[in-house]
Specification:
Length: about 575
Amino acid sequence: MTLALTGIGIPTNRTVAIGSVALLQRGPVQVVQRVVAAGDVGREIDRLRTAVTEAGAQLLEARRRIPPNTPAEIAEFIDAHLLMLDDRMLFAAAEDLVRAERCAAEWALQSRRDALVRVFDAMEDEYLRTRKDDLDHVVNRVQQILLQQEQEAPADLQGRVVLASDLTPADTLLMRERGVAGFVTEFGGPTSHTAILARSLGIPAVVGVRRATSYLRHGETVVLDSTAGVVLAGCDAPLLEHFRARLEAERSHAAALLRLRHAPAISADGQHCWLMANIELPEDLALARDNGAVGVGLYRTEFLYMNRSEPPGEEEQFVAYRNVVQALDGIPITIRTLDLGADKTVDGCSTGTPAACNPAMGLRAIRLCLKEPELFRPQLRAILRASAYGPVRLMLPMLTNVWEALKSRALIEDCMRELRSRNVPFDESMPVGGMIEVPAAALAAETFARHLDFLSIGTNDLIQYTLAIDRIDDAVNYLYDPLHPAVLRLIHRTIAAAERVGVPVAMCGEMAGDPRHIPLLLGMGLREFSMQPGFLLAAKQTVRECRVAELGGRVRSLLERLDEIEPEEVLAALAG
Ligand code: PEP
Ligand code: MG
């Protein structure tokens, strides 16, 4: 009889895994309440400190072992855990508890964990709520050391489906090193970090499968279908055959995509396109290269400003940008100036707007930079200096008014004068472009095009502002629709305006990397697409299958009927 367990599927470019279950005992540590003698309190505190030091050493070792082309999220999670080991609220407070109540270290830690989880549970933001996973991972690790209950992962994980209550970032790294086929966890939701890591590592997973470790046996064969979010055990031969065929089809599709790595992005009727990568960390460059990016269409620079109390200075930024430019070895890069504020907040950099005042519409991105030139100028100088080392374009985020572009250009001119007087080299003709991500800017795109060297459409924000939905608010996610007639008109208007004025236009929001949307965008006249590196090959395949001239005619007639048709009809009319 087939047993089907359901959870939340995390599809990547692979959706099926078939393999024998490798059970990883990663459940919470069983802690019993124990009182220590008054004379042993000092020793108990030493025990706790030694365990924290050991946990730190283990995490540093895991971080050291991160292979170079690993998605940045893994290191970020491990860094977050290392920071937590330094957290007074957790460990110093646990020591206080040992002193005050003479309880054992592991028990004190458990009490602190429970108190902090109550705080996390009260948070409204789902993402922050799931951060209690981090707390549990850190506390579990220290408790396991204290109680000498550390468990080694089975050595033979190749081709197996890993089953665990929950997985730590270090476990997930191990998964990739040892070639697991997929994984199933009892805990976690779509934004839990197990899910984020599965996505970025390209390992199919089903998370949040309640009591999975009670139903599935170590060693039995299971099928994991991450599109449907199910795990099947006890499959009969025809069912297994069905999934094996799907797996095979996915494998040959992935192999075919890989062969496209060096192929040009030319449509079936000979139209050249440029497929570029969005990067956030220098580590993303390897992924961009592996997936055949012909440029970096969006380098988000915010990461340099995060997890620190002071913004980085000109020199630090220059070195960071120059290293990326040099690593690209002649491939063009578009460096976006600081887009802080809204969901990207930073300690030590005031963004002026209290969180409660709708930060997405507040003092963010170019608004913040123009208000605080002492924050902006060092970045402008650093980007200019990096432009001496390879083809660099500078891009301004969240423009609403043309004067913001003009004022930025004046500041850039000013920085150029400064550099000239210091005899510092830079590219005198470095292109300066702007993001079209506010509806007002899309409506006025022609004016922006006349004052800038290129435009890039940021659909993530353009959709948020056009449809009045906060992009990080799960409650209104269902309204997030790239195919809303208003959004499509704004995109089309921007592309057409850039074409009329004769400046290049790209798209760097998530929509650009979705193969379902690419024919529509090609038909509107878009030729430059920038996306997460993992989407590049599938996007290239789509471009190569399209007949752009034909799409142009079909899209024109669709645009005339936008109010009469459903969004799915737009895609259906362009498919095939
Ligand atoms: C966008 O808004 O589409 C975009 C690319 O910028 P970000 O996602 O960084 O806001
Ligand atoms: Mg944006």
